[in-house]
Design a protein that fits this description.
This protein is an alpha+beta fold. It has seven helices and eleven strands.
């Protein structure tokens, strides 16, 4: 499932291309991609004629401010929130891409410059909904800090983990604690920090928290520089692949020798997710 680096890569790809463009036509291919209790018809009517503002991201959500008739100098009437989840992907072109990666149309937004924003989702796990700025703020406030933001300090991470008995891996995946980290980057950060994913979060000492804080930020930054991790489904806009998969130390490397000590990488299941770690380096 796309995590912070993948969703942020999509945002960076789309933001300059969509800013100021107005939606002229909407086609919803599958009604179940419209979330939040809206019908496909209601969604289409609500976004028709609106202009895209500056695309944003919070945690694993893409956010598109939609402005009224005055254009992007006017107020934001609503936010179109997108969850791409496992197989969602975008293309922006005059015609639907003729490739296997875009053969499962989900939603098309035709723009005023003749191009169309195509959303494709083979498993239809993602979706779109509309929120007022006030409703979105309430939901955003319930999420944890952005791990690449200035407020995510080692001291703040220490306060987050201190009272918790849950495993540290599960804590990193909890979007109420830290926003945007998922299975890949939690595994990689814990490996770099030398921390067993099964450790109770509150058992980490000051130095371990500092190592983990540095590792989380470093892994996310490096993945973002690589346009994310493409293992199977993820693609950035117009089918571009990420390349961070070539730099993974433990994720999906069960049985492969650890880069640090050559001991085979182990795999366990935590909260329904696979965790990969080195029992030697992460003792």
């Amino acid at each position: 499932m796309p995590e912070l680096p993948e969703v942020e890569t999509m945002r960076r790809d789309l933001a300059p291309l969509l800013r100021g463009r107005r939606i002229r036509r909407v086609r919803v291919h599958h009604d179940d991609l419209i979330l939040g209790g809206l019908s496909a018809r209601s969604f289409s009517r609500a976004v028709l004629g609106r202009a895209f503002g500056d695309a944003d991201r919070r945690a694993k959500y893409l956010l598109f401010p939609l402005h009224a008739a005055e254009g992007i100098d006017g107020p934001v009437e609503q936010l179109m929130r997108v969850q791409v989840r496992m197989t969602g992907r975008f293309a922006l072109a005059s015609e639907r891409p003729d490739s296997p990666e875009f053969r499962h149309p989900g939603l098309d937004l035709e723009l005023d410059d003749g191009r169309t924003l195509f959303y494709d989702d083979v498993r239809r796990l993602g979706g779109f909904d509309l929120l007022t700025p006030e409703a979105w703020k309430a939901r955003a406030d319930a999420l944890g800090p952005e791990p690449l933001g200035r407020t995510f300090t080692a001291a703040r991470l220490a306060r987050i983990v201190a009272p918790l008995r849950a495993p540290i891996k599960n804590t990193l995946l909890d979007q109420r604690r830290v926003a945007g980290v998922g299975n890949i980057y939690a595994s990689e950060a814990l490996y770099r920090a030398g921390i067993d994913p099964r450790r109770p979060a509150g058992s980490l000492d000051t130095e371990e928290v500092r190592r983990l804080h540095r590792a989380v930020r470093a892994v996310l930054r490096e993945a973002l520089e690589s346009a994310g991790t493409t293992l199977r489904d993820y693609r950035a806009v117009n089918g571009r692949s990420g390349s961070f998969q070539t730099r993974l130390d433990v994720y999906q490397r069960e049985g492969v020798g650890c880069p640090g000590c050559a001991r085979p990488i182990s795999r366990i299941v935590q909260a329904g997710r696979s965790s990969f770690f080195c029992a030697g380096c992460q003792s």
